[in-house]
Design brief:
The protein is α+β, with helices and mostly antiparallel strands and about 230 residues long. The chain has eight helices and seven strands; from the N terminus they run ααααααβββαβαβββ. A hairpin with a 2-residue loop joins β6 and β7.
Amino acid sequence: MNGLYDLGGADGLGPVNPPADEPVFRAEWEKSAFTMFAALFRAGYMGLDEFRLGIEKMNPAEYLESPYYWHWVQTFVYHGKRTGRIDMDELDRRTQLYLDNPEAPLPEHEVSQELLEFVDAAVWGGIPAQRQVDARPMFKPGDIVRFSNDSPTGHARRARYVRGKVGEVVQHYGAYVYPDTAGIGEGECPEHLYLVRFTAEELWGKQADPNSSVYYDCWEPYIKQVKQEGALA
């Protein structure tokens, strides 16, 4: 989908100046939000791409004005409501309870060692998305390709600044879960994934640094061949 969250290449936002000593977490609640992702993933609330789709559903103004981990909380709530795992009336009551009584004790629960081990493994090792497929890759390093100029309506990894642009395939990674289907609950449908190099001039015009390039991960359906290595396609 096209949305405000797709900020890459947007004008008027000024330089990015991260603090020199930025803390990993700015507040205690952010630690809980971070650990909740792996736990809710394990519980079947959402996959990674569904997680991202929930963030894309946020109100644009709230998205820009809220802290990073608040985006995580919002997608947890979105998918909890979507799947019926969260009762919104109960959530509102519990939220108000702790707003009115911030020192009120949290509910006690039994810690699952299996879940702790899964969360630890997911945090440090990630959640593998590579899959085996029978289909052969359509492209190889050196091929010149054009990124699709389609406007996606669901979740996709198609930044506006690369749409319609021409680049060179640098690497083939193998097949990976396809965000466009996984993000809307239509299955993993793995597709071949490539690293494609776009020159800065191709992306930003003649005013760009001629010695700079952007390397972008492109699933196979995102690109079409313009020229094979050494010959016109």
